[in-house]
Each structure stands twice: as structure tokens, then as C-alpha cells.
Amino acid sequence: MDIPSLDLTTEFPRSPRDTSIAGYCIAARALDKCRAVLNNTAGEYHSGCPLDLVWLDFVGIKFKAFRKFVSSGADDAAVSEWIKENAKQKSRSEVIKWNNKMRDKRISKMSPDLQEFLEDYIPANLPADKIVRVWFDVYDIEEKRI
To answer: Domain map of the chain by residue range?
Structure first.
């Protein structure tokens, strides 16, 4: 089956801020990376990485189940519906609150290991004139969205 996919060796996945898949931030990015891995076009990107798992844990979906459904070749709309049917039921308010918490997550509020990793990663990989205010800025600056 043909799996629609970006070529992440030449394109970027969607921003972690994107909520176009089932209303959750991170989901569209996780989907783009999963499809690319399945098509061997992921480049440096990984599917099932810690960022993906933060979202999957919140919605209560196992990575293997997500990957299996994505491998069916489902389009964005079908993946969104599958997530809504298989996720822990959350109120709209809970989803909005979680999305905003993720979008606003400061590096100083992350685990010590991740803070240490980013302390070296940011100056080595991002332009010196860009200011990282929140975690998702790292992705969006590196991928030239901001």
C-alpha cells in the first residue's frame, strides 16, 4: 500500500504546534515522521521519539498501534478519526489546556537530562541571533518557521 509521505531528507515535518490532526499539538508532526520512517525518507528524524511519546502518552495510544494504523496508508482525515476513536476520552477543555501547556513549556520546566541536552544542542544547531523562549521554538527555529 502506498503511504502518503513527506521526504524528510528535503522537507520538514509539520510544527509541533500544529493541531490539524485530531486537535492535538504534536500529532501532525508525529504522523509526518511515522510516514517518512515507513517510507525510508526520514533522514535524521525519528518516529516514536520522546516528543511523540509525550503526545501518545497523553492520548493513551501505544506507539505500535499508531504506527500500525499509519502503515495502512490512511490519509490525514482517517488518521484523525482513528485517533479520536482510540484515544482516552478528553474534554475539549482538557485538550486545549494540554495543547497550551505543551506550546508554553519552558526548558527550565523540563527534566534535568533534557535541559542538559538542550544546553549544548541549542548553541550548536540554532542561529545565535534567535531566542528560544519555549521548547517548541527549538523545532520551529531549526526548521525555519520562525
So the answer is: 1-103, 105-146
